[in-house]
Design goal:
about 450 residues, globular
Length: about 450
């Protein structure tokens, strides 16, 4: 738990947002080390001053639902039941978008229409799959360009249902929610829950918003949840649980796939595989926002695992400042301590690999990291990367240019003579003539 002074500051920020934005009720929480470190609620159940709300109240989370659907699809990939680069028609035949790639649906780069046909689907009774009629609005050559599509996630929910042979929501409940202990995350409201309201923009009046089963569009925004349950979800998205999803697939969710590009500006947000990626002054945060009539929600976490959750029962009107402000307050008043350094005798066998190596005339430092990983860093400009073990004397790159590339130690008489890195050679001295250097050395140092 945070100390009383930080809790007071966080609570004041929450109350200012509720008052200034005229929200019937507002709940927020901060997650640290996988647990709720602070949570608070302000407002009343009916929006008219009757019945104070608590942090255990359930709210509709809208498009945060998409993060669960994405994990459901990636579980299918983990099991080999699909490849995310498959065309949809291979697993869900008969749609007019059969050539669309599953990965493009996950990353909001499919070019599908944003919303379903007919009346405003979020405020209307749900339609069934046969009448959803997914259609492209962007030409196929625009594949990979960001275009947010609620319909696309309706399609992904149907994909889960087809491959599992039962409703997508039953699948997610059994395979994700139950293992993570998220009993308060449901498809329909379960007491105590908030009612959804619209607040009049020019008067102190509220109106009840409808709630319904969105049916085929449910995977785009059906779920309800609480701060505590979403704290569990944030902890999973950050640290993982191999019983739910492989770490490789979970980390792939964070990789920006489609960038929300504003000409003349550095990119501030992108979309991964079911996760939004936020780029603020070079610091990455991940998560998703959500809205349905009567509700707005947000979940974000950073690379250190701190997360902020916000739930509100208003259709519109929030300032957008609360979540970043809560992050800033925590960073200022409760910065995470750096990890305690301890020696690791298990790295003894790797010491001979470390030190200075040369790519031609350019020096690089190679050092060990935890779990047998290696880190290659240039002295000055150059390409560096982290490498994870992939077999005897073999590592695989994890960053930028060397992502997926192989680093292999070449031994002569039992000792490492040089490294092979994506066909380049790293040697102990600049252009070491004793090393294997394809093409030879055309000159000598003089």
């Amino acid at each position: 738990m945070f100390d009383s002074e930080l809790s007071r500051r966080l609570g004041r920020a929450l109350r200012l947002e509720q008052s200034r934005s005229r929200v019937p009720s507002l709940v927020a929480g901060v997650v640290r080390d996988g647990a709720v470190a602070w949570a608070d609620a302000v407002g009343t159940a009916d929006g008219r001053g009757n019945g104070a709300v608590g942090v255990d109240r359930q709210y509709r989370i809208g498009s945060i639902t998409k993060t669960f659907v994405a994990v459901g699809v990636l579980r299918l990939a983990d099991e080999g039941l699909l490849d995310v680069h498959d065309q949809l028609d291979r697993h869900l035949p008969g749609t007019p978008i059969g050539e669309t790639l599953i990965i493009d649906l996950l990353a909001q780069g499919s070019g599908l229409r944003a919303e379903s046909e007919g009346a405003w689907w979020e405020r209307s009774p749900g339609i069934g799959w046969p009448t959803l009629e997914p259609q492209l609005v962007l030409r196929p050559e625009a594949r990979g360009v960001f275009h947010y599509s609620n319909v696309g996630y309706g399609v992904l929910g149907r994909l889960i249902s087809e491959l599992r042979g039962r409703p997508w929501l039953d699948v997610l409940t059994d395979e994700i929610l139950a293992p993570l202990g998220m009993a308060r995350t449901t498809a329909r409201p379960a007491p105590p829950h908030a009612d959804g309201y619209a607040v009049h923009p020019h008067a102190e009046l509220i109106m009840v918003e409808p709630e319904h089963d969105a049916d085929a569009m449910g995977p785009a925004g059906q779920l309800w949840s609480t701060v505590d349950d979403l704290a569990r979800w944030a902890a999973f998205l950050h640290a993982g649980d191999p019983a739910v999803l492989s770490d490789e697939a979970r980390l792939a969710m964070r990789v920006p796939r489609t960038v929300i590009d504003v000409p003349g500006q550095p990119w501030a947000s992108a979309y991964g595989l079911g996760l939004q990626v936020f780029n603020t002054d070079g610091r990455r945060r991940y998560g998703h926002g959500g809205s349905m009539p009567g509700f707005q929600a947000s979940l974000r976490f950073d690379d250190d695992g701190d997360a902020v959750i916000m739930l509100a029962n208003t259709t519109a009107g929030l300032s957008g400042r609360l979540v970043p402000e809560l992050f800033d307050l925590v960073a200022e008043h409760a910065p995470k301590d750096p990890p305690v350094w301890v020696a690791d005798a298990g790295q003894r066998e790797l010491v001979e690999l470390t030190g200075t190596w040369y790519w031609g005339p350019a020096p690089f430092e190679l050092r060990t990291a935890a779990d047998g990983w290696l880190e290659l860093s240039p002295y000055g400009n150059g390409r560096g990367s982290r490498f994870r073990p992939a077999g005897p004397d073999t590592w695989v790159g994890l960053d930028e240019y060397y992502l997926g590339e192989t680093l292999r130690a070449i031994r002569v008489d039992g000792r490492v003579s040089h490294w092979d890195l994506a066909s380049f050679r790293l040697t102990r001295t600049p252009y070491d003539p004793a090393a294997d250097l394809p093409g030879g050395i055309t000159g000598t140092w003089s």
